[in-house]
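Review form for a predicted model. The reviewer records the input and the model, then writes brief findings.
Reviewer: anonymous (R2)
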Amino acid sequence: MTTSLVLAVCAHVVLASSSLVDFDRMGKVGLAGAFAGLDIATNSSSITFDPSTASLLARSSDGSLSKLASTNAGGSILAGCAIGDAVYVAGNFSSIGGTSASNVASYSSGSFSALGSNGPNGPVRALYCDSSRKQVWAGGQFSSPGASVAVWDTASSSWSAAPFGGLTGAAAEVLSITSNSSQSSLFLSGSFITSFGNGSVPLNSTNNPNVPFSSGATPFSSSLVPVPLQDAQISPSSTGGQFGNVESILCPSGADGPGNTWLAPDGNKAVITVRKFAFLTARGIRLGNTFLNGRSTTGFSVATIPDNAVRQLHYLDPADNQNKTCTDPCPLLTDSTVPYQDFLFDSDLDITGFQLTLSEWQGSGPGLHILQLLSDGAFASSIDSLNGQSCFAPSASSTQRTGDWEEKDADTSIAGTTQKVLVSTVNVGTSAASGPSFTWMPYVSASGQYDVNLLVPGCTNFQDCALRTSVKVTVFPGGGQQPWVTTISQQNTADNATLIYRGPIVPTSPAFQTTVTLTLADDPVGNGQNGKYEIVADRVQLILTSANVTANANSSSTGNSTANAERGFGFLEWPLGASSTTSATGVLPTSAVTPLDTIGFDLLSALGGTSSVASGSSSPLIAAVAHHTSGAVFLGGQFSLSSGSASGASNIAVFKNGALAALPNGGLNGPVTSLVILGDNVYAGGSFSDTVQTSNSALKGIAAYSVSGNSWSALEGGVDGAVTSLDTTNSQVLVAGNFTRVLTSSGDNDGQNAAGFAAWDASSSSWVNNGGFIVGSMTFVGNGTSSAPQLVAGNVASSLRFGASGFVMLQNGPGGEPQVTPLGVQFDATTTSKSATKTRRSHHRRVGAGWIPTLNVFSVFKRQTTTTLAPLPSAAPAPAPAVLAGAFWTNNSDSNNELVIIGGNFSYTAGGSLAQNVAIYDDQSKTVTSLRGNQPNGTVRSLLVKGNSLFVGGEFTVSGIEGSGFAVYDLANQRWDSAGLQPLQASSGSSVTVRSITANPANDNVVIIAGSFAQAGSTPCRAICSLNTQTKQWGALGNGIQGDVAAVAYAGNNALIAAGSIALADSTHANVAAYSLSNSTWSSVGNGGDLPGPATAVEVNDGNMNSIFAAGRSTDDSSPFLYFWNGQSWSSIGSTLQGSTNVAQLTMVPLQADHNHDGNDIIQADRVLLVSGSLTDSSFGNASSALFDGQGFTPYIVSTSDSGTPGTVASLFHSFATFSFNQRHFLATGVVILISIAIAAGIVFLLALIEILWTLFARRDDKVNNYDAVDMDADDDSTHRPSSLLEHINAATRSTILGSSPFGPHAEKEAGLAAVGTGAAAAHDDPFSGPDASNYLRAETPSDALGGVLDGDEHSRPAYARYSFHGEGEGELPVRAGQELEILDDRDPAWWYARDMRTGQEGVVPASYVY
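Model under review:
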């Protein structure tokens, strides 16, 4: 039966799209819960997945997933690639996205299209997109339009067979098509047979595979063996340090960096001189730039020694792929993707050294990473000490000899230089067979056309002409060719180079090496001297004439061809752009053989021949190929090699140095399906659990092989199933397959949920959040387009855009839309945890009576009695990993970095150690650190940070700390800080649960702890207690309450609102109760029976006691409720919520400007109520959070568990302790100036009139009253009144310019309060009462705190508090001396509107208190 999972969010989503929550106004915002996947509800949030089909998803750069389409039932998607904005997918299907398409389709501009009508007629298992040629290569098991391989041309919109026709034999199936490291040729692998015979098509045009690839080299230059310079004299000499040794760049052992790079002194050109003091033949120079610290060489020149001639150089410019020449300076690229460039001389040069001048650079100075002198092909000397090992060569040239040989020095063609040679003296009449012999075995890096010369020093300089005779030289070039035998006279008087072979030569490998053997000639010439002949062995010179093996590539001496047909299995290299008139279904020409086609030959031989690869369920196959930049080719699949150089290798092998080789411990013990390379590591995925020779049981499904270290390593514990596909992005390896978890250790199945798709971060060596959420059996992951960098496909049961282990960050994104940033790490289930389900119980109290006065809203109770209460509803299930609480902490010791502290029911690994239930998360670096010491064992439900103290609440214990449910951690000193703190105590038969920890807004040294407990130490404070953070002393809140508290909110600084299953001290039911912070009394919010049952969440609208929301479940637990308190009564506002709803949190959130809703009597237009938990509503179905605007619900956040069932949101928390809902709009500066001028003009006129009246009355008063200054109070404002009309005008003018009132400080204060609100005036009836109640006259605003300096484009500026200000009035902001503030409005000279940078709270402060 087909299973279909639907995340139903299909209804009324108008608010979600039109009313945008302003997360940025709350600071940093975190969302926590029990979920594995999450998304923002939109009009398209109804997503259906049918696991019987194959679904294709696009993965964006942040990892979020979005569905593109699904196939027909029973279909599969196995491969994909992209050209530009078009995506091509393939597999085994008849339709995709509702479009009929046979096995291959394209996706562009939001729709799918079939690719013609004559595409592959069978399953397609591999795709390769050739962007440069606009072609798509398809491989699989089909017969048309080509055998197992077909090519789609996007320009002509047509299918064709591959240039070589196709591939047959064995299973006749292509499983993989990839490119070599230079993307110049294709590697096709699978189960097929290739055959090569005679032909005429030149195909070997790829760079030498035995050296690291660089686009700055050519096939020709990359085939030239570098001259060993280990014994050369090189200057400048080493200056010490990590970058001071120039010899380190001759053959660097690692990447550009310390010990492998030479940096010249800053600001100066550099000259590097290399002298061999011996004759050598050179063809060019190889330079690799450095890119450290912005330094690079940009220009250079080369002069040869001893002639000191500056040479013209020839090079290939990778930028335009054109051949160019240069002299002084020659350009050196600063592109880090080009590791080196080869520069060739006009021809071969005989030199003794060279001088390199680095004349131009960027950054502080020039430098290099690679410096090599290129030979003219290859070489070998008779003197072993001169056969040094070349860079990139596995071994040096070598020699063998028979008979007696002695060393002599010979002059060279370069004045003042000598060359060591070997000579052997034989008796005249000695036969060639019984005489001495000498064999050179030169290291040849790449196949090609070579001229081989034997160098013979002239006899005149040796003064041995009479001794000289003739010798026979035999050359074995390899490749099935016959040897070339030449007889040479050594009686030359001058130095001579004699051609002894011309033709193709096979590169050196463990299985073969070209040899040149010298013996006495069969019929020696000359008479000798004193009955002796002397034969000379000097050097063999191999001059590369062409890197391409062309038609009739035979040696010139014998004319023999490589007519013997060779067969290969499972591998074919095909140069892109090559063409052929011959079909690979038959016999390809021998000239089509590339250096790497030897892989197929060796595989077939090692497998036992064609009979061993016949089609069958256990037949060998090559499923994946990866080409490392070192030249090594890795092959993965299902095979076991029984002979050859890689005998014993299973399922994975490497081809390097011209031969197959086994990897450590015999390879892997199960099939390999996918290979990718990231840096130095090769990652293999498949169905294996260890190496063949047991070595690491953590290699489950995926393993990493270090190329440089030649060793296997595990990805933690691997995965618990088979891996089908791998891809890389940035520093991550993306893993797709049929598994459910990534494992953290090898010995068990503990790990993180990852159903079918996971991400491994190579830089941190850990499994990380892959960004999206998916449940399924995945078959493919690969590169996509620029807008969707990856494609993911498989049988999907459920998926959401974002994946996270219970936590995401929220902020305003582009266009104001919510931007979700998932937790950057993966959490696991806790190793030991306590059940999150709480046992329900009744509460019994003694009954008493007393007189209860009636107040306007609340009934105040004085004496405690007992009653029976309904049990608090059970918390929503929180299966691990779940995050249930969070808080923000500013780490002052780390550049004030603001970190997130999260708690819940989870475990993770940090610093190599297992931790659980609390984590410190850095959202910038995406890393977590643990609390030091013992870990909480249980579930953490609440967190609070005050300063450097972390208060932790929940259902847990910490080893070494007395009690349970509550603990304190010192973040600065990284230790638990519960010494001297008496533990909370539970009622008999119960356990302590702390659900809420909040800061007391009326006392900065007090926190409020609430939940289920009987007392704190010896203090009887049931369900809610206060804790003095300085003395660590517990205190009761008034007469206390009965029952259990689920949530706490605050009505400004005046009252605490507690919700739960509560009765007051006299046993009156009050599931929502208020505690006055000023007079320490409890009172019921409404009547006890107004709410249908215990409350699980409560919120106060912006501190307004007349606007309270409460949610919970009915007493019989049959239905949920959401009620609103308007100051007089409770009313239901959540009638559409259905029975399974559990509300975990209510919180008011602000809306962005211009996105208000229509305000009403319940909720103002600039805010909404965010209802979170596990919600089911008749209007929208399931959601984890919904927005309530006072009239209806809109689904906002949907989430799911790792099994695909609906998830739960536990809490939204933010870094600002308080924030303003008001959306302030400022007039433009020009408008403000015009208004000010108009007001000033009116004031001047009014002041003139007042002055006249005042003067008249003052003269009259002077006649009646006697003025005595001594009787006046020093602070009496009358002494500051203007005494003349001119002073009144000056005061008015000052008001116009600076904004001060002409009526003195009293009016200034009143104006400032008026800007805050009408309630402010009532709070300060005495106009002279300062914010610290000290009756003062405010000083004038100092010159360094001038107002009105914010310009039109500046919305705020930093400032600091000069004095402390209590800020007890409505709208005022309390500050402490030295505190950092953000000034938001400074136009009023008396009161400035400011924000506390630490808490986010906003309000007015005296301008004179700020600078």
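Findings: The radius of gyration is 43 Å.
Further findings: The longest helix spans residues 1229-1264.
Recommendation: see findings above.
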